[in-house]
Structures are given as structure tokens and as C-alpha cells.
Amino acid sequence: MRLPGGRDLGQRALSSLVLAPVVLAATVFGGLPFVVLWTLAGFAILMEWASIARLARREVWLALAGAALAGASILLYLGSGQAAFSLLCLGAAASVFVVPRQSGFALVGVLVAGAACLPVMALRNGGELGLVAVLFLLAVVWATDIFAYFVGRLVGGPRLWPRVSPNKTWAGSAGGALAGMLAGVGAGLAAGLPSVLPLGILALLVSMAAQGGDLAESAAKRTFGVKDAGRLIPGHGGLLDRLDGFASASLVAVAIGLLRNAADPAAGLLLW
Length: 272
Hints:
Layout: H1 6-29, H2 31-52, H3 58-77, H4 81-98, H5 103-124, H6 130-155, E1 159-161, E2 165-169, H7 170-191, H8 197-224, H9 239-260, H10 265-270
Antiparallel strand pairs: 1-2
Helix pairs in contact: 1-2, 2-3, 2-5, 3-4, 3-5, 4-5, 5-6, 5-9, 6-7, 6-8, 6-9, 7-8, 8-9
């Protein structure tokens, strides 16, 4: 049986085999290496966004947005979550004045880069369960992405949103959501969490958020008339193409965690 995807699948698999161990190693190690890795990812997304949105005064915008992102990362690493959020929002607002004719795109770019890297830092810094929270999130998002791709290719059927993303199907979306839910439950069982059933519901919600982020980025690329956010990752496109779903999923996850436990979002996310 020939697997779907051909050469594109081979490039995707090779890229994943290179990137996944790096992400997992930084996650397990935590601390400064984890913050540096995700801050660099945020910088890369800023550059990709400036390119696909064709922002004027690109260098000035990148300097301002990069400074805001770096400052927010440092503040978050030091445990000042509210200050980090405020600085990022201030940087996003200031970017409007740098590119006044593209103010909406300039503001959204800063917020997208921040959403891609800051929430996962907040979870990893969240007490003893920080590592488990990030591994839970990675398991759900990766399972969703992988199984949505394979089920969509194998089963086919009606398109999910053909005007925005013609290759995505309802079958793929359902397969990805189910896989994400099972991966979340499996991560909870492996970590010995006391209450696993609510994690299944939570994982399903996070999986849906990941798919929503993927569709939102596809809609943005349609608006700008580009196929990929960049060419950084063979078979995947740009880093934004890989982190679109993860950004929305981690944003939802940290929001739930903070609502339930403002002092320790990882515990708020996982302990039910």
C-alpha cells in the first residue's frame, strides 16, 4: 500500500525527525534554554509575518516588535507574567505608529508572534507540573496534526473550508480531534494525573483550537496571496506554518490554566 503524500510526506517526516528532538530536549531541560528556543521561534515568526504582509519600514518594525518580544520573554522567565503581557501589548500598540498605513497587520503580527511563544513559556514555568503541561500540549497538537493529515488523505470526503484550505476535510478534522483527545488522555495516564477523564474533554478542546489556528493562518495567507509563510522547514513551509495551531492551542490552554489557578497555570490546566 502506497502511503499518501509522496515526496512531501518524506520531507515532512525528515524535518520532524530533526525538529522534534530539539523541542523535546529543550522542554525537558526547561529554564533558559527553553526560553531562548521559543523566543527565537517568535523572532522567526516576526520576520515571516513582515514578509508575507509586505510591511513597509520592515527593519524598524522588526526592531520594535523584536524588542517587545524579547523583553516580554525575559519578564516571563523572571516570573512577571502580567508585566510580560503588558509589555507585549504595548509593543503591539507602538507598532501601529511605525507602519500607520498597515496598522492592523503590524499589530496582529506582534500578537501572533507573542501567542506562538509566550503561553508555552508560562506553562513551563508553572511549578512542578510545568513539564507535564507542555508535554500534554505537544502530544495533543502533534497527534492532531499527524492524524488530520493522514485521515484526510486516506478517507477524503467533503472539504472542511474549501475557499480557505482546499486540502482539509471533515474526516481529517474528526480524525485529528479524536487522536488529539486520545493523546491527551494517554499523556495524563503516563504522568499519573489523578483525574484523567476531564483531560480528554480538555484535550478535545485544545485539539479544536489547534485546528482553528491552522485555518486562521490559511485564511491570512489567502488574504496576502501566498502559499507558505516561508521556506525555513522543508515540506512544512515557514515556522508560522508549523506553529499556527500550536499557538492557538497553547493560548487556550494557558487561559484555562490561569482562570483556574492564576499562580500556577500548569496546575490549573491539569489538576481537576
